[in-house]
Amino acid sequence: MSLLRAVRAGLRALIRKERVARELDDELRDYLERATQEKMRAGLPRDAAERVVRLEMGGVEPTKERVRSGGWEAGVETLSQDVRYAVRRVSRRSRRSR
Q: How many domains does the chain have?
């Protein structure tokens, strides 16, 4: 991926979090369905096929977390959270000392 694409994708992820989250949900749902269908063609019943796919994938939520933490925007988001936390702590201390 080129640097420009990486920057654009990261900014999009930061600005449109809900939309990016929905798209990730859609992609994972599509992947689960396709992989389940493939396992079913191999002879597994649907519930067993879904279970096998989820186990191979490592679970839906851990997969989402791995995807989210893969880009530079995860670092920016963490920094932003840390700064907000620090500001809250400083403002509480300044109110107490008055």
A: 1
Q: What is the pTM assigned to this prediction?
A: 0.57
pLDDT in tens, 23-71: 889 999 999 999 999 999 999 999 999 999 999 988 888 888 887 776 6
| Assigned token pair, 96 | 């107490």
What is the C-alpha to C-alpha distance for residues 70 and 78, in angstroms, rounded to an integer?
13
Taking the C-alpha atoms of residue 13 and residue 62, their distance in angstroms, rounded to an integer, is 18
Distances in whole angstroms, Cα of residue 21 to Cα of each of 15, 40, 54, 98: 12, 28, 19, 43
Phi and psi dihedrals of 58, rounded to 5? 90, 15
11 lies in some domain: yes
